Amino acid sequence: MVQIKDKMLELPVIQGGMGVGVSLGGLAGAVAACGGMGCVSAAHPGYREADFHNDPNRANVRALKEEIDKARAISGGRGLVAVNLMVAMRQYAPMVRAAVEGGADAIISGAGLPLELPGLTAGSSVALGPIVSSGRAAKLILKTWDKKYGVTADFLVIEGCKAGGHLGFKEEDLLAGTAQSLEEILPQVLAEIAPYQEKYGHSIPVFVAGGGLTGQDLVRFRAMGAAGVQAATRFIATAECDASQAYKDVIIGAKKEDVRIIHSPVGMPGRAIRSPLVERMEAGERRGPDWCANCIKTCDPAHTPYCITHALIEAVKGNWEEGLFFCGAEVEGVDRMSTVAQVLEEYRAALERA
């Protein structure tokens, strides 16, 4: 058991948020139903709504609340339901408010530093978990929240250099293999949270993520002071994942040599499977957006090499030619379909053995 604000997390495993449409209410609810923390991605949850192209903001707010409700219904009141929010989103503040109004237990926020998050959730009971990739990032967030809002984090997630999707490391370090490991970052973050745990009188559980963390890894990192782990890629190849079977088959068939570090319009490096889209971008081709949702603060539609919203929507539908398939560094370990219960049983069994 791990205490997250005023709630107890039965199994110390978070299912990482995956957009667009990969982790919605179906997957998040199934994880929560097994005692973990399921996570709905707030990256265009309304992409299937009839009014998405005409009014994406309205569609996304409505869909996020619906997906939270769906996750809660599936969970049966067990586990926790969180929402993953990217700071880089232009719609960040409205989506934070939608997560609160929708009754999410927690908000996990990264792809930038969520320095303003407590101000957007003031007066609510939602637990706040910033995503960091260094002790320095943790220090800045905790110092800002303490000074500006008089609060601290309820938990933290360290996303290491082997994670999928957007990464908080320099591209040259990722390519050269010189980025700090989770084993190096964790003690730094634990040192940074110590004074705030003492000041606010409660623990700040730290979860580590990135690299296909197993049940043995969970036990190992808990021995180092972490509370638990966050996993994402391995949940894609489950029956409950909200992505298409074609998307899941891409993940299952991927090999280590298929993984690439890519340039994302979000302004951060990312890790994805080498697909025709990735190959075209590596060759210097550009395909500007046919339609713009105005979704990312750092994206300039006139110059972006591709529309990440379009690429992620096509991926979740299983469009190999046009899709961008994010994945973790050790995707080759996901080689067959399973269920959420089977994935989580490995972690539960490891803890029982320990």
Short description:
With 354 residues, the chain is α/β, with parallel strands linked by helices. It has 13 helices and 13 strands.
Describe this structure in words.
An eight-stranded parallel β-sheet has the order 3-11-10-8-7-6-5-4. The protein has a three-stranded antiparallel β-sheet with strand order 9-13-12. It has a two-stranded antiparallel ribbon with strand order 1-2. It is 38% helix and 16% strand. The model has no long low-confidence stretch (mean pLDDT 93). With 354 residues, the protein is α/β, with parallel strands linked by helices. It is built from 13 helices and 13 strands. The protein has two domains: 262 residues, Alpha-Beta Barrel (TIM Barrel); 71 residues, no CATH class. Helix 1 packs parallel to helix 2 and helix 2 packs parallel to helix 3. The protein starts with a strand and ends with a helix.
